Amino acid sequence: MNIKKENSLVFWLFLAPVLVAFFVVIVVPFFMGVFYSFTNWSSSAKADGGLRLIGLQNYIASFKDPAFAHSFGVTIAYTILNMIVINFAAFSLALLVTSKIRLRKVYRVGFFVPNLIGGLILGYVWQFLFNNAIPFLGNTIPMFAALARPENLMLGKANSAVIALVIVGTWQYAGYIMMIYIAAIENVPVELHEAAMIDGATPLQRLRSITLPMAAQAFTVTMFLTLVQSFKQFDVNVSLTSGGPSTMFLDTPVLGTELLALNIYNTAFLSNKLSEGQARAVVFFLVLAVIALVQVAVNKKKELEL
Amino acid sequence: MKKSLLVLMVVMMAATLFVTGCAKAPAGPTALTLAQNKPEIDSALKAYAALWGSANNVDVTVKSVGGTSGGLGPQLKADFAAGDMPDIFAIDGLEAYKEWENLILEVSGEPWVSKTSVAFKYNGKVYGFPVAVEGWGMAYNADMLAKAGIDPASLVNYDGYKAAFGKLDGMKKELGIDSVVSMAAAIEMGWVTAHHNFNSLLANGLPYGDLSVVNDLLAGKVDAKRLAEYADWVELLFKYADKAILTTGNYDSQVGAFATGKAVFLHQGNWTDPNIKGANATFKMAFAPHGSMKQATDGIFVAAPSFYVINKDSKNIAAAKKFLTDLATTPEGAKYMVQDAGMIPAYSGISLQPDGQLSKSVQAWSAAGKVYSWSQYYFTGDFRDKILTPIYNQFATGKINKAKFIDLMTKAFIENKK
To answer: Do B52 and B326 form a contact (C-beta atoms < 8 A)?
Structure first.
């Protein structure tokens, strides 16, 4: 056996465990899931049991459900807001902790820590803040009295509850995205900044013409991460709002902040329609895949090569 | 560096696979698995199961899954898909029964059947072992009612409640309360509105087990008068509730307001006993009937909240049967149910009494025979959680008025029939 053959054998052997795991827990379930979305699968022991192919029924029922359409709308709105706010916050924080400010290492850790808290717990903590701490503030400090009025509670109305989700999402995720920006900003060659400073460029000009273009690669990554993270948001959604409060959509009352992932879960497990939930998950996958590919393609065009 | 990392990962991978492969439980005595949906009794049940297991040489595993977002249901589906169904599992009613119909063993011949009136039956055959008896009505703070000069016996219909609520509302300062009723209608509290409160429309004032209203509504036939009276009741509850708790509160804030004396009434059941005790409430309390009708309805809603069923395909049916029988018929079983788990036993021949005040009230109402059914389980979870819950929530937040509420409810029933 020559070296080359041996090397490739070793390569595949070492890769095998990962490949097997990937195949067994990702690839196979994915295609099984697509198959189940065309059946009446329920994973239970109903009297009329037996798996039957029922064509596109699950997909048709999904698209007829106003709650599903509404979830799409809310998810897209939430994703756009979340991408803007997270990236803006994360980039600002990254600029802050890469400047010459004192204690910047401590800040880095501090901003990153919320990302280490589980989303479920985070949701309950913020639910307490929105429902109890903020009204308490309003009751104790006369200046903020408006905060204590029940009609001003963030989680009391569908629109402001979406904003609440964005706030919590940003609090949780901005620190993580900040880390990526820090790496990008620190990789910008110092000589570019020095040369620009000799030419008399202001800090703002240097940010716009040097830092931002040089960090474009990071933007491709962070945009992708925030897009996917926001689109798939589930745990904070469950614990913070459970999809509530309700709102009217197409003259039907629906859950106002039920993001797609929660809608899929509720369809599958609360409504006991596993295969219909599966169909929605397939639609979800297709839409997210297309949006993410478009986003990466657009961002890639803006990247610079040195 | 990279190579060593790779090697490390491969070793870890292999180790994980190896460990999971070996993790099968060692085959000792008979193994029995019970999956149930009340996390609050988990430790008591595990202690009892261990005791019973050592006496009968059975290794009992208790799995408790509860809480929001489905609870036990999704776990059972995952177990079923994995071919690992428990030997005994809990169902909450008709819909869950239908979901597992092919897997549930008929237990009509068991010795405990004659000792209970609330076993789960379908087509005249017994399938489910009632875990306990629970009840809800309007829990009231008896001390405050006495102070306000309101006789709890007058709280049997809409007019009685309207007068009492109005009077109490005018005495807020004197009584030190924030609101009259502690009611929750947020989406995560849909089980209070679209399950429990909804049941007033279905069962209040009807003989126990009467399904006439349920069947009419399932057929899309809406009794406009009954629905209008019910809407008045919902409006009354929402009107005198604390707005913050009503629209955004969770279970803790709802029960907390009552337990700390910030509300006179609580729209909940006797399972709140431990929570109220935990808040060090010392006042006297009991249940009054719901006032969802003009006519007097002198009774509260009492039934078994969940049932243990035996898996037909289990290898240990005999042990499972014995476990349930012993639970209902032995002194140890009674001690566990009543004293350790704090539940109201569903079986005759048990003289122990739970110490919670609201549980005692439920026992008093059922002893007097003044009880109405739980009929909400005849409607699917889909219908209650995804159609009705948002309607109640809209009404609670004031986005729709009573006329629109009635209109949306009517439409929902007609749509549900299709």
So the answer is: yes
